[in-house]
Every structure is written in structure tokens, then in C-alpha cells.
Specification:
Layout: H1 2-35, H2 45-62, H3 67-80, H4 83-96, H5 101-113, H6 117-130, H7 137-147, H8 151-165, H9 169-179, H10 189-198, H11 210-220, H12 232-236, H13 239-247, H14 253-273, H15 281-293, H16 302-319, H17 330-336, H18 348-353, H19 361-376, H20 394-401, H21 418-425, E1 440-445, H22 451-459, E2 463-469, H23 472-485, E3 490-494, E4 507-513, H24 522-531, E5 533-543, H25 550-558, H26 568-580, H27 588-591, H28 599-606, H29 616-625, E6 628-633, H30 638-648, H31 657-666, E7 675-681
Parallel strand pairs: 1-2, 1-4, 2-3, 4-5
Antiparallel strand pairs: 5-7, 6-7
Helix pairs in contact: 1-2, 1-3, 2-3, 3-4, 3-5, 4-5, 5-6, 6-7, 7-8, 8-9, 13-15, 15-17, 15-19, 16-17, 29-31
Amino acid sequence: MAQVQVKKQKKSTTLSKSQNIKFYRKKAYDGFHLTQSDNHDPRLSRGLLAQAKLDIREALELDPDNGDSLNLLARIELENGHYFEAQEAINRALIESPENGGYWYSAGHISLAQQEFNNAQSAFQKAIKHAPKETRAEVSLAYTLAQNGRIVEAFQQYRELAKTQGQDLHIRSQVVNLASQIQADYYDPELEQDLLSYMQWDKVNLEQLGTLVCSLLEYKFELNQKGSAAHFDIIAKCPLFLSALRLTLIKSEMLEKLIMSLRHELLTFSTQQGQLSKNYIPLSQAISQYGQRNEYILPETEAETSMVNVLDNVINQSLTQFGCTALDISGALLLMSMYRSWLHLEQFPKLMNWSTKDWPEETYQIRMWHDEICKLGQYKFEKITTIPNCKENKVKSQYEQFPYPRWRTLDYKKNINYGIALRHEYKHVNFPQHLFDDNLRILIAGCGTGRHALNVAKYFHGVQVLGIDISQNSLAYAKHMATEFGIENIEFKLADITKLPILHEKFNIIECSGVLHHIRHYKKALHNLLNNLKPNGLIKISLYSRRTREPVTQVRNVFKQDRDQLDRHRVQVIRQAIMQSSLIDNKIGITQSDDFYSMSGTVDMLFHEYEKHYTPLTIKQLCQEFNLTWLGFSNLSLKTKKDFLSFHGSKADMLNLKQWDEFEEHYPHTFANMFQFYCQYKPNLKLNTQDN
């Protein structure tokens, strides 16, 4: 009898232990899962992760080799950025259960976070093998292929995933991002249908589809320098072409020529007939929306200018007549909007006074675009420095006339703590604790139209962002887009960085991307920024590479005199001359840039009022002058890193700017998207603010 009682007691104790393990694991899982929720308040993440780690440790105290507990610990440590501890935990779990797909899935993400792409690929393949439906390993595998530089293979994987999981924003964003790096080499009807379906997506940057769409259309229309073999009506009714005009970036010289030809025929034929044919309304609408998005970058002939001026007069006269409606002049308005906006109309205020419900379908979207432009003039901003007028400051004048960039969508990213994101990229740095705190204060200096500033505000946990710029019109666009996206943890103020005082509260991080190289007194500007940075805070800087900008420098020198009389028409003419020129070295670096396909982008890239260039060695000198500890370049591709290590062999040091200078000399297009780097500020010495 005594033995029976002992056995019962032992069974009861075992049951209690099992229940406790499940209790602590569930508690840990619930806390961890909450941090992954889209509706979660990111400011609570650190506390939840800390508690989840304590809970899962309790479970492991009871059963140190429990695979599920070890797997959860690995995911918690990964979320905290503790890669060694995460790897150790998942290795122990896999020893216990080497055929568990969920464990391999976690192992893949740990390798992915450490940029060990081959290991990650292998782990995700094993996850698919052992548990094909239990994880998102197929998605993670496609992402790993992309990160490993296998672009075409990754695109095909995501393309297949999009057929069944097209609502997934990660899949959407990866499809369009990879498409921007691919060109078609023949006409593929199935790809055309896929691209048409992608054009229906929202919340992703459809302009990234431009490279692939344009190359496919070139083959479909059999385009060459002489024109197209396709009939006018076939082109005019092509769904992919019409969608591309409305929604994506037309990044093709041959397609631009085709559009100019189609536009000319539409205008001429309609003028001769006295009206726009209903059959060609969709094409005229699409060309109009294309013109609005690129700020009317295409030039027009003298004959076209004459015809459009006639339309201008007809519209203005009609608007003075009693009883005139939007429907009465919709054809003329549509034809005119293929060449220029309605803002130039003398009777524009009267045109915009008509209620939106009174507008016909064919011109409604164009009317709404003009309404948005008018709203931008209503925003006002606090000035934290004196602001020069446009005559005093040509850079300000440029951005008031051509706010840059004009954008419509934000990036798609996972919400993350800023400090943890930095630790992912700079594993060698011991970052100060304040970078991991909530309510991180970030200054975006020279924020322009706000796309990057809003990305920072939206996707980093617990940040408060201040965007400053010298341009009223740029900030108006930024504020408008912040309202559109419902982003509230950001404010915008007018400021001249060269006059920036010490503000009330210093910042943990300052980002100044693509700005200092456009400021003559850049040392004064940098000095002012650093005065507003907390000790041991970080500054991110992006600067033009001298070697990458050589083709641009050549263009700027050829058209140096034209910059003094620069206007919209002159930009159009010079841009066409660049396309046709055979004298510009490596001009493909210009014509392949997205900026070349919009008015504000072309002005910013080729005709900026002032720009200064850098090399890795001059960046090193800048860091020494300002007591900045170099942390390294950011956003380097895996290929660039591999090439650098191969180039320097056993002596390779990713933090050695002399080595980077030697590497860039050999690979001059490495920093086509500017030098982007982080530094840590240690304010010990008096700074030299004398500008060169």
C-alpha cells in the first residue's frame, strides 16, 4: 500500500511540473506574441520581452532540454538582438528535435539576422521539407535569396507567392522592389498579366515596376530608335501601357519618344476634328496623369505650343460665358493637361470653384490633382531661424520652384527599435543605452518633402521626429503626406541649418542625408547640428561621391551657362540633348537614374545651384576635424561587401577609409546612391568651423 501511495505522489508531482512548464511557456509566448502584433504599442516592447524572457527561463529551469521552450527563448533573444544567445538556444532545440520544421524556421531567421545567407537558405529549405504548411519559410527563403543577390531567382519565387498571397504587404513590397532591378529580354504575355495585377496593388511603390514594365513594352511594341511597328489603336488601347502611364515610372527613352508621338497625333487629330474622340479619352487621360506625375518633363514642338495656346484661349473664353460647365470644356481641358497644368489658366480660380460633383468622369481625377496642389499653399510652419528669401538664397529658390522628391508611398518595413536596427548593421559597436530607450528624439536635417522623415517616424518604435528644411513648399508637401498617412509623431519647422541655434532639448540621433554637399558653409552647418546632438549620440550623413558624379560634373560643365537662365523649357531641351549626345562619358549613370524622369529630379541631379563632392579620404578628414568616431558605411549590398573583402584579401578592414578609397578607385560606381554612413559624436575638442 505504501508503494502505491509513493507512485501516486510521484505521478502528481510530474503532472504539476508539466503544468508549470506549460504555464510559463504560454505566459512567455503571449508576451512575445503581443510584441509582434500590428496593433501593439511599440513603447511596451522592451518590458514585454524582458518579462517573456524571465517566464521562459522559469520553464527551462523545470526542463532545460525542452525544445519548444528553447525555440521560444531563441525568438525572444533574436528580437532583443542577442544573436549569440539566440543561436545557442536554437542549436540545443535542434539537437533534441532535428526534424522540427518550426525550429529550423527560427534557425533560418537567426542566420538571416547575422547575414549568413547560405545558412539561412539551408535552414528555410529544411523548414519547408519538415513542415511545409506550418511556417512562412517559403516567404523567408525568397527574401534570403534576394538578400544574397540572387535577384531573378528571388523575383520568380515572390511572383509565385503573389498568386496565392497577393494581399501580403511584405510580398507586394518585395515584388516591386525586385522588379526595379530586372529587365525583360523578350515579350512574355504571362508576365504582362502578372504586371497588370501588380498595378492594382496599394500601399507599395508602383513606380518601382517601371524598369520591368518599360522593357516588356519595348518588346511588345517592337520599339527601336525609328519608332514602333505596332498600330496606333493597338498602343492606345493596351491596358499595360495605360496603367504604366498612370501609375509607374516610364524609364525609357524609346517609350518617351512614343508618348510624344502619340500625344502629338491626339492633339493634331482632335484639333482638326474639333473634339476629342471618345475612343481616345483613356489614352489622353493616361498621358495627362503621366505628365502630372513627372511634372511635365517632356518637351513640346512650336506647333504643339501654338495649338495648346489656342486651347488655353478657348477654355478661358468659355469660362467667362454664363452657363458654362465642366462637361462643356472637358475635351479641351483633357488635351491641354497632356502638356501643362491648368494652373496657367487665367480663369483657373473660377474653374476650381465648381463643385467636384459637377465634374465629368474623364477630367475628375485631374481636377482632384489640382485641388491637392492648391491645398499645399495653406500650410504654415514655425521658423526656428531667420529664413532667407529666394533672391538671397538660390538653393531655397530652387526647392520652392521644384520641391524634391515628389513621392506617393512610404516603404514597407517591420517596426523595430532604432538601436536594435543599428546593432543589426554594426555588430562591432557598443552603442549607448539611450539609443534603445523609448521616446528617442531624432532630427532630420534638410528633410525636403519628407519621405525619409516619415519612414523614420512610422517604422521605428517610440521615436519623436523633427524635420527641418529651408523650403516652405517642400515642408508643405511633407506635412500634407504626414496627414495622408496619419503619422502624428513628427513635426516640421522652417530652419536654415547654417543659422541653427542650440535647441531646447538635444537629440539622440541626427540624420542629414543629401544635404551638406549642397551647402557652401557646410562646416558651420555640421557644427550647428553637432551642438544639438547628445554626447555619444549618432549622426547619419549622406554625401555625393566625386567618382560617381563624374558624368554629372561633365554635364554641369557643358551646360554651365544655362544654369543662370534655368526654367522648365530649358530643362526639357537640355535633357533631350543629353539623351541624344554621344560625347558624355558613362551617361548611362544619368539616364538610368529615376531622378532623370521627373522635372524636380532632373533639376536636383543635374542643375543644382551648388554641390560639393567627396571621397572616402575627405570623409575621413571631415570626421577627424569634428571629433566624429567613424562607425562605417550603411546599406552596403552583400556583393559590395564580398567584392571589398576579395579586393583587399586578408588585410581587409571594413572600417578603413583608406582601403575604401582604393576600392572605389577600382570600382567607381560603388556609391551611386551616395556615401551613407554613421558616426558617433564625442565633443571633447574645439571644432574648426572654417569652410573650405
